[in-house]
Structure formats: structure tokens, C-alpha cells
Specification:
This protein is mainly beta. The protein contains no helices and eleven strands. It is globular, with a radius of gyration of 13 Å.
Length: 124
Amino acid sequence: RVQLVESGGGSVQAGGSMRLSCAASGDTYYYCLGWFRQVPGKEREGVASIDRRGNGYIADSVKGRFTISRDNAKNTMYLEMNNLKPEDTRMYFCAAGPPVQGQCPLRQPFYGFWGQGTQVIVSS
């Protein structure tokens, strides 16, 4: 069984940086790993995903500011967030799921395992 635990959230001023980590237990080597974020009452938005080879997919809304990576030896995924904006204030979740035709879609239904989330607050 796969379990995911996020860490690294907190508060930062606009323009600052933050790194989120997602530690996985269980065999996620062949899985896509992804980051999603959510405002209460709204649907989770795909932020970034990465396949086992390290090929990343970044949402247009954060492209150029966020970077995704994974360390398969440590079974851990990271989200490096730079030039943070107040609109990045969300709960961030990591997720794991099998690839779909070799791709890692940024869509919630394709991921069956989820962490509990970590809050990111960006103040102006």
C-alpha cells in the first residue's frame, strides 16, 4: 500500500521561495507522482507531475516558477517554488498513480493515492 506524507509548507512573503517534499512509503517507482493544490470549496488543480524517469510536466499557471523533481532512491518527490505570489496560497497535496499511455496527466482522477496536504500561505 502506498502512503504519502507532505512537508515543507508554511508562510512566506510574496517573491519568496519554498520547497515542498513528499515522502512515499510503498513501491512508487513505476508511478507518476504529482502535486495538486486546492482552495476550500474548489476543485483540486494540477500543478506538476513527474514520471519515474524524471520527466516533469508543469501547469501553465506556474511554469517558469515551479520545478518538480524526484529522488527514486529516497522515494521522495519535491516541488521547488520560486517567486511565490499571493494567489499561490493553497493547500498542496501530493499524489501517486500509474502512468496513462506513458504520460502523467495533471488530472485528479488518474491518481489513487493522496497525502493529507500541507498549507502554503503567501502574503503580499
